[in-house]
Amino acid sequence: MEARLVAAGRGWQWVVDGFVLFRKYPAMWIALTIVFALLWLVSFLIPLIGPLLFNLFTPALFAGLMIGCRAIENGEPLEISHLFAGFRQHSAPLVTIGGVYLVGTILVVGIALLVAGGSMLPQVLSKPGADIETLRAAVRSLALAIAVGGLVYLPLIMLVWFAPLLVVFDGVPPIVAMRLSFVACARNTMPFLVYGVVILALWIVLSLPVAMGPIGALLMLALLVASIPVLICSVFASYQDIFAAAPPASTSGNPFLR
Question: Using CA atoms, how far apart are residues 174 and 95, in angstroms rounded to an integer?
């Protein structure tokens, strides 16, 4: 199969289509997001191994959420069980993708720490007599590490963005799925750039209530919890746009009222 090249403006449409999927089952989407977050938190109860296992199984859990999106599209209800649907028939290839993602994440973190000089900033902050220039150097080192880590992490994200969906919906082997995912992201740089700008703007807007104090912070938290499922659904929308047999039909009117 081949990835379709789409217009830059489709990056905005993916977010819109994600919202359309979310608003059909908002309570269940929020519940699924909370369960996913709880699984992530529980993984930290098992030192070292827990977070590694969570990263290993993340593609399978994410695939389950994508299966939930497909269920909604087919007129079926969204259920908590969808979160674990990826383990039923595609566990081995999804865990393979998880293994690549896990190794890649470890390499990215290692490179970032190497650039940052290990734990330089915490060590500087722990010294009460650290001068301002040393502190500035540590902050610059940390900023450089974050920038380098982000650049190195981007190809990894491109590898796994569509891979779980290609496995569960198209039966593509995991290595081939990751290659197709990378090529699809590379071919559609402009729509993904627009998509990233829209998400960044969304998160900036959602962070504004924090200036209102504790009530604003709670409001911001609620908005963030509601926005995460929209972003999850937008990934499914991007897959439909780029890999579906036929491009989605264009719509008119206010997209948020559809």
Answer: 9
